[in-house]
Amino acid sequence: MLIALRISNYALIDALDLEWPEGFIALSGETGAGKSILLGALSLALGERADPAVLRTPDLKCVVEAEFDLQGRFQDFFEAQELDYADPALFRREIAPNGRSRSFVNDVPVRLETLKALSALLVDIHSQNDQMAVLEPEFQLEALDAVGATAEWLDAYRLRLADYRKAIKQWGELEDQIAAVRDLDYWNHQLDEFAQLKMDAEQFAALEQEFELLSHSEQIGQSLSEALRLLSQSEWAVRDGLIRSAGALRSSLGYDPSLGALMDRLESIRIELDDVVLDLEKRAEVNEPDPARLEQLKNRIDAGRNLMHKHRLDSFEALVQFALEVQERIERAHGLETERAALKEAMEAYRGELEHIGLELRTRRIHAIPQLTADLQAVLDQLDLSQARFHIELHPLNEPGAMGWDRPEILFSANPGQTPVPLKKAASGGEISRVMLAFKSVLGRYRDLPVLIFDEIDTGVSGRTAAQMAAVLHSMGASGSQIVAITHLPQIAGAADAHFKVEKRIEQGQTHTHIRRLNPEERRDELARMLSGSELTEAARTQAEILLNRKG
């Protein structure tokens, strides 16, 4: 249960420190006094979105603390979240002037998701905007699941559903990728064209060099012949000149022995020259035109260049790189198909598991329908709807939903002899309020929620029905849950175990919201005000006394 709520610098609240009793608690106040502010502050402590606009003084931080008596429960949750267990537990939320918020449980920083998960175990807040939630399939399934004790199966279903939906997303992405590689045949053709060349960049360069050589063999032969002629065959042949030069020097060797060194050098040049001449002769012998080989080279080189031109590439090295990229695309395409097959198998397995778990959920829900119907009817009997009848049906879905393969439908008739129709078509506003309270009463019992907060659950009801609703709320508070009801109805406020009043005051030109617990006399006057308006009469006070005496 909530045992304390402390608020500072929130909206119209400067500072507030409230202690909360057990049982059924009523909050009342004039319209606009700030009842929703109190609920907003508590919601903030429980993990709702933080808005810097709620700071009363913009340059100071806002702090909201909610202290709960856990009654020794939820230790498993604390252990799973690696939190130190303490009872009472203190939830704290801070909003800094820069808009950043921080969350704490027992003074230990926690992620907002952790705070929300823990809060969901402790508090159920029914706001004014939630009134029509009873018409939603998800809410109705939650009720069936609470009665049918499906939590373990539902958790397993949601885990597998997450896997299945992730696989569906991956499937879509994979299909897009596969659609992008539909040119697999064309890529294979491109790769075949390159393979038919049967050469790499180095081999292509060698072919070009050989082609260049063969295509100019006649010119090369002429160059070789001319070189040979100049070296050894013409009248001024270099070889003969070297021999004659050495002979000329020899005639004077007796006079100048140093000429011997020059003669030796000339001889070395002659020997080297003879080697050059020999190599030229050998080269000239093999430099024969080969038209067939030249044609073969031309065809292979043209094939390579044509393929380069086709793909707008400026070198054979670029063509080789292009072929590697095509090969990678082909391998990736084959890999995608393999991945696609594996993903399809996984999706079918996930769907099969979802169908199995969904069947178990449906079975448990079907078994829970009579009990839920009886429980709801028992509460509605107390709310002046004893003639109303519920009929709950489950319709199968073609695809797995967030909570299974079922779509519930509540058929409702408020009066005898009336054919049951879907609840949203049959119930009036006041009836919807009572049906919602009945659901909350049943859910609170099966979920064993410590705190249930109702923000104007009494919308659309009055008179005898309001008194009966008050009795139900009082009964819920007496059964172990702490019930907080924000109300405008004196019948409901009068049935509470404790009564808090929300007031708006103007002090020194500033508007402030105050909340205080009323003593018996103040409570009587507040009920009288709710009965008669701003002017208190003795008749209203007398009626207020009657309401207080009839409490519960």
Describe the structure.
- It is a single chain.
- The protein is of the alpha/beta class and 552 residues long.
- It has helices spanning 35-45, 75-80, 112-122, 137-148, 151-179, 184-197, 201-215, 217-233, 238-250, 259-286, 291-310, 316-382, 423-426, 429-447, 463-478, 490-494, 520-532, 538-549, and strands at residues 2-10, 13-19, 24-28, 62-68, 89-95, 101-105, 108-109, 123-126, 389-401, 404-413, 421-422, 451-455, 482-486, 498-507, 510-517.
- The strands form three sheets. It has a six-stranded antiparallel β-sheet, with helices on one face.
- The protein is elongated, with a radius of gyration of 48 Å.
- The two termini are 20 Å apart.
SSE blueprint:
Layout lengths: L1 E9 L2 E7 L4 E5 L6 H11 L16 E7 L6 H6 L8 E7 L5 E5 L2 E2 L2 H11 E4 L10 H12 L2 H29 L4 H14 L3 H15 L1 H17 L4 H13 L8 H28 L4 H20 L5 H67 L6 E13 L2 E10 L7 E2 H4 L2 H19 L3 E5 L7 H16 L3 E5 L3 H5 L3 E10 L2 E8 L2 H13 L5 H12 L3
Parallel strand pairs: 3-13, 3-14, 8-12, 12-13
Antiparallel strand pairs: 1-2, 1-4, 4-5, 5-6, 6-7, 9-10, 10-11, 14-15
Helix pairs in contact: 4-12, 4-14, 5-12, 6-12, 7-11, 8-10, 9-10, 12-14, 14-15, 17-18
Strand order within the widest beta sheet? 2-1-4-5-6-7
Mean pLDDT: 83
Radius of gyration: 48 Å
Number of E strands: 15
Q: Beta fraction of the residues?
A: 15-25%
Residues in helix, %: 55-70%
Low-confidence stretches: none
Number of helices: 18
Terminus-to-terminus distance: 20 Å
Largest beta-sheet details: 6 strands, antiparallel
Cα shape: elongated
Q: Find the structural class using helix and strand composition.
A: alpha/beta
